[in-house]
Specification:
CATH architecture: 2-Layer Sandwich
Strand content: 5-15%
Number of domains: 1
CATH topology: HIT family, subunit A
Order of helices and strands: HHHEEEHEEHH
Radius of gyration: 17 Å
Distance between the termini: 54 Å
Shape: globular
């Protein structure tokens, strides 16, 4: 008996990046960094949508993760392309915590999670997918959100399209800032 296929063609860009020809531990420079691109000043509405930017301030950027762990997975990143907390000023560290707090309020309002994981991976060995640009993950969670598909098949089911998630979150973020 053959197993059914679960098609996820949007993942190919991510998977191909994992096999890049860059040496191990290579951190992309600012010109190659999607977090730097998301944090650029003066982006028009179409570019913000393309880069999934929900909010930007003087310290950082809040955006939707293009490769989410679950529905509503957000990222918070400083405007500077730096790998360590110690590379940021005290003011920027505080401002980024305020962006994390904004993101948690946004998630609570829009996707109504029962909990939220807030994580920071420092270095590739710690799980950082972009080790050259520090960023936090805000992952909404629900009791029982890991099911047989994840456990048995190693596949995550995201119940909402990325563009629909973006529209809901973008509409709501304006009410919170």
């Amino acid at each position: 008996m053959s197993k059914p296929n679960l098609w996820a063609p949007w993942r190919i860009d991510y998977l191909q990046d994992l096999g890049s020809s860059q040496p191990p531990g290579h951190a992309p420079g600012a010109k190659d960094c999607f977090l730097c691109a998301a944090g650029e000043a003066g982006l028009d509405e179409a570019t913000q949508k393309e880069r999934l930017v929900l909010h930007r301030d003087d310290h950082g950027v809040l955006l939707l993760n293009r490769y989410p762990y679950t529905n509503g997975h957000l990222l918070v990143a400083p405007l500077q392309h730096v790998p360590e907390l110690s590379d940021l000023s005290k003011e920027d560290r505080g401002g980024l915590m305020e962006l994390c707090e904004l993101g948690t309020r946004l998630l609570k309002q829009v996707v109504n999670p029962q909990g939220i994981n807030v994580g920071l991976n420092l270095g590739r060995a710690a799980g950082a997918g972009v080790p050259g640009h520090l960023h936090w993950h805000l992952v909404p969670r629900w009791t029982g959100d890991t099911n047989f598909v994840d456990v048995v098949g190693g596949v995550r089911v995201i119940p909402q399209a990325l563009d629909a998630s973006y529209r809901m979150l973008k509409d709501a973020v304006g009410e919170l800032v």
